[in-house]
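Hi support team,

I'm filing this because I wasn't sure whether my run with adenosine-5'-diphosphate finished correctly. The job status page said complete, but I'd like someone to confirm that the output block is well-formed before I use it downstream. Pasting the exact inputs I used:
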Amino acid sequence: MTNTVPKIELKNVRKAFGGKKVLNGVDVSVEKGQSLVIIGGSGTGKSVTLKCILGILEADSGSIKIDGNETRTLQGRKRDVLLDEFGMLFQGAALFDSLPVWKNVSFKLMQARRMPAKEAKDIAVHKLSQVGLGADVADLFPAELSGGMQKRVSLARAIAADPKIIFFDEPTTGLDPIMADVINDLIVKCVHTLGATAVSITHDMASARKIADRIAMIYQGQIIWNGKKEDIDHSGNEYVDQFINGRAEGPIQMQVLKH
Amino acid sequence: MSQEQLIQIRDLVKTKLLKLCQLLGAATLGFFQSTGAFAFFTIRSVSHCIRPPFYMSQFIRQFIDIGYYCLPVVGLTALFSGMVLALQSYSGFSRFSAEGAIATVVVLSMTRELGPVMAGLMVAGRIGASIAAELGTMRVTEQIDALTTLSTNPIKYLVVPRIVAGTAMLPALVLLADIIGVFGGFLVSVYRLDFNAANYVDQTWRYLENMDVISGLVKASAFGFIVTLMGCYFGFNSKGGAQGVGAATTNAVVSSSILILISNYLLTGLFFAK
Ligand SMILES: Nc1ncnc2c1ncn2[C@@H]1O[C@H](COP(=O)(O)OP(=O)(O)O)[C@@H](O)[C@H]1O
Ligand SMILES: [Mg+2]
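And here is everything the job wrote out:
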């Protein structure tokens, strides 16, 4: 155990939309340089958790600390400064379809850091090569790429400004198993090269096992289990067991079965 | 009727009334909530208009979109409005031998009313809809969230350029529409109604005051602001998938059209009250 301050620390984070409670007191923390994978079913609030940390959504209550500083209600300049450290790969890639690939990748460098176009393009091409894409892709538009390529471009965009904290929201969902594994390898490699702290979301166990140092499971808006990835197969938690083995029977009842 | 039946009816009325009150309450609350959200969005957008950084390439794109690509539709509408004005006022005014006033009627109607209102409504259909659809799609595909994580304020990057371009470009469009509309009236009067060309031009200028044109341009600016703001607001707040984007587009066009007509009345009252 280390006694340093965790890079990210969530305590009792709650978030509701109207009357619908999505997060019911999430507690989780990530040490610097570690990779945490959050697993859990669809609609259990995984993406909402990440968005609360980023401040895209404001959590209703609780504490969200980055490097030991409370950030839950940060606004304006202070939020901008904080967000400068982050990179995020969105679930649906979320590339800007009006811009060519290289401008997507170098967006933050050009718009927020005012880097000249030529220099930014060189960096974009370099980052694209890191995710296994050639320079010829740089001038294409996102709509001309396959799903796997879009994810890779989005990954290049997330790492382009050398973030200290990086989030991956379902990086492998919707990809074939081989492309999924390619993305997993890229994520491990990129996080390692950057020395970044990573939080990933997935319901793909193969991906989780590959990316994670630690795994946390979210169910009904709470973290119900959290431990080293080696321990996940003998967690002693029947929810986790049901999830990682993908069984329909167990304590987790799907909404469809209830009605 | 028995006592029991009466009690049953009373209870039924009670529950129905309660339901009605609940519905009314929820609707009122919803109304104030969305009005508040809209006001907040407006204030935030306007305050970002005057604070750097500014995204020049975005401004240029919007100026071209609104100014240049709206020219054909606005010009065409203005041309035919001017022509119809001439025809209508001829057939109306000849009943009391006031054909001489046609040129004045055409130029005053165009500059004060038809120019700005027609252009405003056309731009609402063309630009308001496309803004709502574009921003709505960006919202549901998380592109707006992505902007935030790339240290770029979405209001500054997406909303400000559109609002500024709308507010600045509509007066230019309307000035052009005024000229084209008056020209349309001229064409009909001279070639169809056999007016003397020089006389008509003279009549056009004689009673025209600066205020007629200026009031129209101020209106245009207000309409440009309304159209782009509504497009941005509904696009920005769209939910769900394709259906949500569709609803955002409809809401943007309908609400900006209504707001144009209402604010047109208010502004006219302000400019030309006795
Ligand atoms: N902006 C929002 N407004 C209202 N409800 C939302 C919003 N974002 C997410 N939700 C709801 O929160 C729940 C959790 O969503 P999410 O975190 O995206 O799930 P997942 O775990 O699959 O990523 C879902 O039921 C969703 O409907
Ligand atoms: Mg999700």
